[in-house]
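Quick start: read one record
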Amino acid sequence: MAPMAIDPQQQQQYQHAPPPMNQQQWMMMQAQAQAQAQAQQHQSQAAMQPPQLWPQQSPQAVVPPPQYSASPASATDEIRSLWIGDLQPWMDEAYINTCFYNTGELVSVKVIRNKQTGQPEGYGFLEFRSRAAAEQVLQSYNGVPMPNGEQNFRLNWATLGAGERRTDDTPDYTIFVGDLAADVTDYLLQETFKPHYSSVKGAKVVTDRTTGRSKGYGFVRFGDETEQMRAMSEMNGALCSTRPMRIGPAATKKPIGGGQQYEKE
């Protein structure tokens, strides 16, 4: 049989064709091509995404620790101190601080001592970070047995009555409230009137300075004269705790150091 004639153009293609590859070379070329394709795919995906300026982390709420000021209250702050009474001679500042340490709100403790003898007078004062904290302690601890003691906590607002501010330039219209039961506190006296008279500004039960026990009378301050007059007629004989109240006008007197005080009329 005569040999097949080869076209000159085909012959030229055969001459320039690469030599046949073995299996190992072919697999290496396939791997390189696949790696290049993956690299191009990653580059195209990265170009479509916005740049990450911060590391991607699961969001967490950052809560700063609470910060309190231990400085005394300014003249415009509400009262945040409590009077504590019926203290035994061994009950010093360290003991009292331990009693209220768990509240996390106590700023300072002061036990009053006799200037001549240095012996405790049986009462002291507690200062808290806020009026709300002081009120919470008053409501939670007053009347509760004291640790390692034979008596209950006896607490009351210091200096000013419940709801009163250190300074108040608005007019006061005050009534005298007598025949109070021994368990009536500033807060209870105020809450006896406040639901009926929106202008009630504060209340104060007068106590013995040494023992802290109620003297059986107090005062309620109003911001509206009409409500003061109504209270004297409407609340006279009404119950506060377990006893009916005796209500009358309160005479004011100006002390030398300024401020406003009240006395029975």
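Residues 46-76, 253-263 have pLDDT under 50 and may be disordered.
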